[in-house]
User: Fold this.
Amino acid sequence: MDITDLDKMELGELVKLAKTKKIKNIAGMKKNQIVSELKKQTQGATAIKPEQKEAPSASPVAMQEKVEESKFYVGPTTPQIFKENEFVFPQSYGQDKVVLMVRDPYWMHAYWEITSAKVGSLKAQHGEQLIISSRLVLRLLDVNNATPEKPNGLSDLDIAGGTNNWYLQAPNADCSYCVEIGFLAPDGRFFLIARSNVVHTPRAGVSEVYDEQWMTLEDYDKVYGLSGGLGIGLSSGDIRKQMRKKFESLTSSGGSAAVSSFSKKEQKKRGFFLIVDTELIVYGVTVPDAKLTIQGVEKKLNPDGTFSSRFALPDGKQEIPVTARSSDKVDTITITPVVEKKTV
Assistant:
């Protein structure tokens, strides 16, 4: 409504309008006063809105893309939270079954399930009164090198009502067992419900099986000698000759002791002898690209510059010069260990 229209309205119309606008104390007002109050309220309620700039119109291509996207828009989606159902093991599986497990050499554990259908079948077959008067037992069978039908021995264990597992003591370690569950009648008859698997208890001590085949000292001497460990510069043929001579000297006569260049043998009686050998290990480190010689023989270095050589150590004095020369042949260092051995 325009403000100028208020001046044209009758007093009754102005009063009704003032009441709708909730203007107070209009009963004693004149027409010009009511018009003045209505104008004040109308002017105060009319807010001057700031000028809004028109948003730039979208291009035809953008509008077309927006239309295409709207074809696949199905509204805001609420993410669904999937909770994995917790697995609950059933109280029973509906099978007449007994399982035997080994705990240690002298203890085993058995658990079982007996269905009401099986008990009902036994009652129907043998008489309800007979089954009610029978005892539910767990029968332990010794089947070591035997069968459950013809066991080496057996023993019965009474089962308390409502029990579905039990620990059993094994009479012997390193033995095979199985169990049967059933009703033992007063007259001694046994009504089988289920038979378990066969288990074997472990040994109670150290195993008597020896898997390792250890090399003897004689075998070691042969292998070590053929590998070149008895001296530098000896061929495998020379080493074999040395070994042959040593053993021939020990077995050729039963008289005086035969002494080789690197051992001494004392023979007190035929077939009894003693051999004592010694060896020397020379090791060290130098620059990895250096050239190394030991007793004039070139020695190959390890990638980190370390080296190691083994020597036979005969009686007498032995000098072992070790020389390292730099790759540019400018620096040379020689260290000579001197070793003396005497066998008595």
Remarks:
- The first strand starts at residue 97 and ends at 104.
- Residues 122 and 265 are 85 Å apart (CA to CA).
